């Protein structure tokens, strides 16, 4: 980046792994509850069967500023 | 698969039944975990790290034994044709495909993995690669144009639910007989999602059709759904057949039972305790054991003070791992 900051307008999802992602969008865990996507529904319902809680996403950490390398 | 290396020998091929005919597809479509940054450098502001809770054991719980006798070789058709014939049956199957693909330029996060070299996997807009049936389904939802070069489809032993869904979605497919437009394809997906949502939500919660309809109403997909429902009696079909969906049809495979037992054992112990963490580790390690040694990774061996290829084990299977 040569010391320059990223353009904030480009943010949304800044990185992802197989089982999660980092975003500047708050409360995405609650926003996805009403998803009609078939994969979301399958996951939601399997979690419900396994644990009694049908959450799709959980917020693990909240961080301010940083460096993606 | 205790000894993966010996499978690719004359003796191994002869002794492995039909497995050798398909295993390369499944090995090819196993790309390992995704780990990707879309920007790099200094980032300012507040950032949220979201995770799927219990992703690996939850995915493992959805597995089932393959129905080898019902396997089908695939090839030569385009993505729409494959989706029309198998559609959401692909979810409850072990499917590995060799494809050529092209996403619309508007897709920001393409999902098809392409191996760049021995260590890197990228997710481009176009390319040629191996992928799983699940990756194919998601790509189709994103509007990807796909040509199936070849592949194999092995359904789960317990796929009654999907058979039922297939019957329903076939009737939806008839809607599109006079048109091949993008909006019709999208409509088909959204109606099927809506249908699955109703089947599951009625089963697992006390939500009514009304509340489900309201949530769909809010969705940006409502336009397509509304169009479809106006042109077809599918809603009536759903109501009539939903009652027929029983506990058995959702399937409780041995994979599910193992994961369920591990979770039940785990919650008996306080969060953060040794036993709680041990059962969490066991649940997470299961899927890792199914993939161990597939990509011939080397690992440092302290006893010989050298690096050695990680051996496969009895739980290893490229079908389950992918």
Question: What features would you describe in this structure?
Answer:
- The complex is a heterodimer of chains A (69) and B (322).
- In chain A, a hairpin with a 2-residue loop joins strand 1 (13-17) and strand 2.
- Chain A is α+β, with helices and mostly antiparallel strands and 69 residues long.
- Chain A has two helices and three strands; from the N terminus they run E-E-H-H-E.
- Chain A has helices at 28-31, 38-51, and strands spanning 13-17, 20-23, 58-68.
- Chain A has a two-stranded antiparallel sheet.
- The mean pLDDT of chain A is 78.
- Chain B is α+β, with helices and mostly antiparallel strands.
- Chain B is globular.
- In chain B, the strands form three sheets. Chain B has a four-stranded antiparallel beta sheet with strand order 3-8-4-7.
- At the A-B interface, strand 1, strand 2, helix 2 and strand 3 of A face strand 1, strand 2, helix 4, helix 6 and helix 8 of B.
- Strand 1 (13-17) of chain A pairs antiparallel with strand 1 (35-37) of chain B.
Secondary structure: elements and pairs:
The complex is a heterodimer of chains A (69) and B (322).
Chain A (H helix, E strand, L loop, with lengths): L12 E5 L2 E4 L4 H4 L6 H14 L6 E11 L1
Antiparallel strand pairs in A: 1-2
Chain B lengths: L3 H4 L2 H6 L3 H11 L5 E3 L3 E11 L3 H7 L10 E3 L4 H8 L6 E10 L11 E2 L5 E2 L3 E7 H9 L3 E11 L4 H14 L8 H23 L4 H10 L3 H10 L2 H9 L4 H4 L3 H13 L7 H18 L6 E4 L4 E4 L8 H4 L1
Antiparallel strand pairs in B: 3-8, 4-7, 4-8, 5-6, 9-10
Outline:
Chain A is an alpha+beta fold. Chain A is built from two helices and three strands, in the order E-E-H-H-E.
Could you list some keywords that capture this structure?
heterodimer; A: 69 residues; alpha+beta; two-stranded antiparallel ribbon; 3 strands; B: 322 residues; two-stranded antiparallel sheet; 18% strand
What are the segments of chain B in which pLDDT stays under 50 over at least 5 consecutive residues? 160-181, 200-250
Instruction: Write down the overall mean pLDDT of chain B.
Output: 73
What best-fitting shape of chain A do the alpha-carbon axes yield? elongated
Strand-and-helix sequence of chain A, N→C? EEHHE
């Amino acid at each position: 980046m040569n010391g320059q900051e990223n353009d904030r307008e480009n943010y949304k999802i800044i990185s992802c792994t197989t089982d999660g992602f980092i975003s500047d969008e708050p409360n995405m865990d609650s926003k996805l509850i009403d998803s009609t996507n078939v994969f979301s529904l399958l996951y939601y319902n399997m979690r419900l069967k396994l644990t009694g809680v049908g959450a799709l996403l959980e917020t693990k950490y909240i961080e301010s500023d940083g460096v993606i390398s | 698969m205790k000894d993966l290396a010996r499978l690719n020998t004359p003796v191994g091929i002869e002794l492995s039944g039909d497995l050798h005919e398909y295993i390369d597809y499944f090995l090819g479509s196993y790309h390992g975990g995704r780990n990707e940054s879309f920007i790099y450098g200094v980032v300012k502001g507040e950032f949220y790290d979201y995770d799927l809770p219990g992703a690996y054991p939850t995915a493992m719980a959805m597995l089932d034994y393959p129905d080898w006798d019902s396997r089908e070789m695939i090839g030569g058709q385009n993505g729409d044709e494959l989706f029309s014939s198998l559609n959401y049956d692909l979810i409850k199957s072990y499917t590995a495909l060799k494809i050529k693909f092209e996403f619309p330029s508007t897709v920001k996060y393409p999902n098809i993995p392409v191996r760049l070299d021995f260590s890197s996997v990228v997710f481009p807009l176009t390319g040629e690669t191996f992928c799983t049936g699940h990756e194919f389904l998601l790509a189709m939802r994103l509007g990807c144009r796909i040509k199936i070069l070849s592949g194999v489809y092995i359904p789960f032993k317990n796929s009654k639910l999907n058979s039922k869904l297939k019957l329903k979605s076939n009737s939806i497919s008839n809607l599109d007989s006079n048109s091949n437009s993008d909006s019709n394809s999208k409509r088909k997906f959204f109606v099927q999602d809506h249908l699955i949502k109703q089947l599951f939500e009625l089963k697992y919660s006390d939500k009514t059709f009304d509340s489900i309809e309201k949530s769909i109403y809010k969705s940006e997909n409502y336009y397509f759904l509304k169009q479809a429902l106006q042109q077809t009696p599918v809603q009536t079909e759903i109501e009539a057949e939903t009652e027929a969906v029983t506990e058995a049809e959702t399937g409780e495979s041995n994979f599910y039972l193992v994961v369920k037992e591990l979770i039940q054992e785990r919650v008996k112990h306080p969060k953060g305790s040794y036993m709680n963490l041990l059962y969490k580790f066991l649940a997470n390690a299961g899927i890792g054991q199914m993939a161990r040694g597939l990509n011939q990774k080397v690992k440092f061996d302290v006893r010989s003070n050298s690096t050695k290829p990680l051996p496969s084990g009895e739980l290893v299977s490229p079908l389950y791992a992918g």
